[in-house]
């Protein structure tokens, strides 16, 4: 009895998916819970496992097809996989002489060893041209005379060791030289354009970004941070931190903790607009943007205010691996209240990030670059980072946005503030 592979429930508000890639083909054996197909939704790419062991039968939804929740993707039949096709014979094509003999009807099964005539002796050995021609028909003798072939060197292949027409023709055929290598030519010019269909995830990203631009009054404010103290702190405790917690101490956990301090002081930055209402969030679920081959995704570190630096670093690392492996779930991506995007890992010096709806603000980190700055009455070379806060001006005033970045700057430039919640 065949078992159906169906589109699973994809999460809240997700009713359709696109078949991205079949991992198994018809006739292939699969085991229970072995991934057979990848589906792409508006938010994630997920693998659908086999509901039973067996052989993949008919595929109902080819790659690129849009399928609703519950639709049949393929069937699994009981039994073993189809056997592999038999290997091709190792023997090559027949030789020209053999083809000539077959055409002449002269090839017959003979009970003799290789190179012997029907009487058990080698006809051409010590016999000379006259002896060979004596046992050939008139037409063969005439052909040998006209062609000038030295029949003394031929091995007759006819019945009873007789020389036949095919033997003479094979000797007469000119030697075939191997085909000359074709002249090298330049590779064809590359196509000037390549058209590919946008993935469902990329289309959804485009829709959300355009939605953010159309529906929010976005504005961006900037500041710069001297990273000297955070870098010194990280360098001092890096080895001990990694030895104890099994994870590296990065800058992202410092920025997450600094953002929470600022969000608590300025709750409008952690709020969102719902119709005519402002919804203030009393929890701090921080989205951390991760770039993947499929596009930018924002998994969420939940209740980040209750987590330690080590717990935040571990969760960010785990979510990043899931994102790159395409293993994120809908729950991993839902419910964030504020987002941090680190363009500095790609070398970005300055940018204006776009809101992640329905959130009202996003913090952009950038590349750390050593440059001269005024420190008191002196010019010093310091590791500096530009930071940007894009916010929805409908709910966040300029004063709040600037103050938010100042609080981030104070905490990162003096991380001891984070220990005392200052």
Task: Record keyword descriptors for this entry.
OB fold (Dihydrolipoamide Acetyltransferase, E2P); Chloramphenicol Acetyltransferase; seven-stranded mixed sheet; 11 helices; about 30% helix
Q: How does this structure look, described?
A:
There is one protein chain. Helix content is 29%, strand content 23%. The protein is an alpha+beta fold. It folds into three domains: 3-77, RNA polymerase II/Efflux pump adaptor protein, barrel-sandwich hybrid domain (OB fold (Dihydrolipoamide Acetyltransferase, E2P), Beta Barrel), CATH 2.40.50.100; 127-174, Dihydrolipoamide Transferase (Irregular); 203-419, Chloramphenicol acetyltransferase-like domain (Chloramphenicol Acetyltransferase), CATH 3.30.559. Strands 9, 12, 15, 16, 17, 18 and 19 form a seven-stranded mixed β-sheet that branches. It is elongated and about 120 Å long. The two termini are 67 Å apart. The model is unreliable at 81-126 (pLDDT under 50).
The portion of residues forming beta strands comes to 15-25%
For the record, the CATH architecture of the largest domain stands as 2-Layer Sandwich
For this structure, what is the CATH homologous superfamily of the largest domain?
Chloramphenicol acetyltransferase-like domain
Tell me the domain tally.
Answer: 3
Low-confidence stretches: 81-126
| End-to-end Cα distance | 67 Å
Task: Give a count of the beta strands, DSSP E runs of length 2 or more.
Answer: 19
**How many DSSP H or I helices?**
11
The percentage helix is: 25-40%
- Write the element-wise H/E pattern from the N-terminal end onward: EEEEEEEEHHHHHEHHEEEEEEHHEEEEHH
Rg for CA atoms: 39 Å
Quote the CATH topology of the largest domain.
Answer: Chloramphenicol Acetyltransferase
* CATH C-level category of the largest domain: Alpha Beta
Give the integer mean of the pLDDT values.
81
Shape field: elongated
Biggest sheet layout: 7 strands, mixed
- The secondary structure category is alpha+beta
């Amino acid at each position: 009895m065949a078992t159906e592979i169906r589109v699973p429930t994809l999460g809240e508000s997700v009713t359709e998916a696109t078949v991205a890639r079949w991992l198994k083909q018809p006739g292939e054996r699969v085991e229970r819970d072995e991934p057979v197909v990848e589906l792409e939704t508006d938010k994630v790419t997920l693998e659908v496992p086999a509901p039973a062991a067996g052989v993949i039968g008919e595929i109902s939804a080819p790659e690129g097809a849009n399928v609703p929740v519950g639709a049949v993707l393929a069937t699994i039949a009981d039994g073993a996989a189809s056997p592999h096709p038999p290997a091709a014979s190792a023997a090559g094509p027949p030789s020209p002489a053999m083809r000539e003999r077959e055409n002449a009807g002269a090839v017959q099964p003979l009970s003799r060893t290789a190179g012997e005539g029907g009487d058990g002796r080698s006809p051409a050995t010590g016999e000379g041209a006259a002896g060979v021609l004596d046992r050939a028909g008139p037409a063969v003798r005439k052909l040998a005379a006209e062609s000038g072939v030295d029949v003394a060197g031929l091995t007759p292949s006819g019945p009873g060791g007789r020389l036949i027409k095919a033997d003479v023709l094979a000797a007469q055929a000119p030697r075939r030289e191997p085909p000359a290598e074709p002249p090298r030519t330049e590779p064809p010019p590359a196509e000037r354009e390549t058209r590919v269909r946008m993935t469902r995830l990329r289309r959804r990203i485009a829709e959300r970004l355009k939605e953010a631009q159309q529906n929010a009054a976005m504005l961006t404010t900037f500041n710069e941070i001297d990273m000297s103290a955070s870098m010194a702190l990280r360098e001092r405790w890096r080895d001990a931190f990694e030895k104890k917690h099994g994870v590296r101490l990065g800058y992202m956990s410092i920025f997450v903790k600094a953002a929470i301090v600022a969000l608590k002081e300025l709750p409008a930055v952690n709020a969102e607009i719902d119709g005519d209402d402002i919804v203030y969030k009393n929890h701090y679920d921080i989205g951390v943007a991760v770039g993947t081959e499929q596009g930018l995704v924002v998994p969420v570190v939940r209740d980040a205010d209750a987590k330690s630096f080590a717990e935040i670093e571990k969760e960010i690392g785990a979510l990043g691996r899931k994102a790159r492996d395409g293993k994120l779930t809908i729950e991993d991506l839902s419910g964030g209240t504020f987002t941090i995007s680190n363009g500095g890992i790609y070398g970005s010096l300055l940018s204006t990030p776009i809101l992640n709806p329905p959130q009202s603000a996003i913090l952009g980190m950038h590349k750390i670059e050593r440059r001269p700055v005024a420190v008191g009455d002196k010019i010093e070379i310091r590791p500096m980072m530009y930071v940007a806060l894009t916010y929805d001006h409908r709910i966040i005033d300029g004063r709040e946005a600037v103050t938010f970045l100042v609080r981030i700057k104070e905490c990162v430039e003096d991380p001891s503030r984070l220990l005392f919640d200052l």
